[in-house]
Amino acid sequence: MHYKKLLFVSTPVGPLGGGTGGGVELTLYNCVKALQKRGYFIDVVAPLGSKLEGVSLHQIPGELEKSIQEQSPADPITVYNNSVLSNMWQYVREIEQDYDLIVNFSFDWLPLYLTPFLKKNVAHLISMGSLSNVINTAIEKVLKHFPYTVAVHGKIQAKTFSFCDQLLCLGNGLDIDQYQFCAQPQDYLAWVGRISPEKGLEDAVAAAQLSNIPLRIFGLMQNRDYFDRICASYPNAPIEYGGFLSTAQLQDQLKFARVLLMTPHWVEAFGNVAIEAMACGVPVIAYRRGGPTEIVQDGKTGYLVEPDDISAIVSAISRIDKIDRWLCREQAQLFYSLDSLGQRLESWFNKI
Ligand code: UDP
How far is the CA of 141 from the centre of ligand 1 (A)? Predict the structure, then answer.
């Protein structure tokens, strides 16, 4: 093993455990668990208020970053007074000598820019598709001087960047033991994610109304106005909002769903919720767009439908009983186990 002591640096959009970081929060936790199993020692730097079981956390105060999804590609980078991002990376500089490798989980310009100024190597796990020209240029510069140091989750995400052939595809993984298999679903559909326009909740609500099957929605209420607009547009849709749940609570609700609907309007980098559903034996109906396209096997673990085509979702729901729920669980175990994630992470680090 080349590197032994790792310093993970979390996203500055919110404390770990709060949900603002979206899939990055679970990804970071699963990477910690996958590498701890292989004998690595890991500390995590994260915004103040973070919670992460069984992990040594360095909590940093400061102003949280705004989510990049709200910005346009040509927008400049904004620096907030007392920014938690700059505080976190200043702290990294102070303690970097105690670690062998730094792993960046944020989608931000600053850690990329700082890479040549730090003494230790930095591995960057990029968790979004191309969204910002400034960040794209910064990634390209890092790759020029430090090849193999930038990874993404999937090929479709990689292709959103002009330098895609230089990006390493890491996939993702989860702790399958945290998810219970459920062979007999109840009569409801599920939608899981941050409630924010790019996630396309309104399409799932429309499909639920047309199918007349209840839809249970779980996730952080990031944009209340957006949710209220959906409720006003579909006053008779059979929907129920179940709040933002811990992983244990979430899987306990998700496992009874007939299907998970994934209706993103943006190029989802990966889509953790797809593999979480599959781990419970829940098939997935997703738009053929972004990460879920690489996860869902059409006709085997769910259905991939034409993006933005609500009638195609409704038709796929009517065929969902043809999907073998046990196969969904098996495929999650086969491709997304913690062990395979740990192996992929290790071979990435060994290339650096
Ligand atoms: N999630 C959660 N509780 C909920 C709903 C969602 O912990 O009630 C988590 C879920 O486990 C997943 C994340 O929110 O890890 C959503 O990540 P995903 O990759 O699907 O989308 P992103 O938010 O990154 O766009």
Answer: 31
CATH architecture label of 5-173+338-351 = 3-Layer(aba) Sandwich (3.40)
Half-sphere exposure of 113 (CA within 13 A, CB side): 10
Angle at 207 between CA 221 and CA 325, to 5 degrees: 90
Pocket test for ligand 1, best of 194, 241, 284 (most atoms within 8 A of CB): 194
Residue ranges, CATH 3.40.50.2000, the chain: 5-173+338-351, 176-335
Share of the chain above pLDDT 70, in %: 100
Ligand 1 close to Cβ of residue 218 (< 6 A): yes
The 10s digit of each residue's pLDDT in 199-209 is 999 999 999 99
**What's the pTM value of the predicted model, to 2 decimals?**
0.96
Q: Which of 11, 13, 24, 26 to mutate to test the pocket of ligand 1 (most atoms within 8 A of CB)?
A: 26
Is the distance from the beta carbon of residue 276 to the nearest atom of ligand 1 less than 6 Å? Answer: yes
CA of 190 to the centre of ligand 1 (A): 13
Q: Is 271 in the pocket of ligand 1 (CB under 6 A)?
A: yes
CATH class of 176-335: alpha beta
